[in-house]
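Batch manifest, entry 17 of 40.
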Amino acid sequence: MCRNIRVLLNFEPPTTDEEIRAAALQYVRKVSGTRKPSKVNEALFERAVDEIARVTSSLIHEMETHAPRRSREEEAAKAKIRGAKRFVVRA
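Output type: structure tokens
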């Protein structure tokens, strides 16, 4: 999985529509290989982002889990620790 893709399921407070759209945009950028589409592909690109955001929202809101809710602060702290381990500067 791409390092920048984040889990969106089971957070308190719940994942926002903006977070879902940002994830969809990131996905479309990754699979299309472009950060910004050409004018001719712009509508197609935006439609893909909208559709993926809609499906992702449906998935997140309909999935059932018995796991305790995640905290964004705790997840950010874990990511920081993982990053520190990954980018250890060796002398």
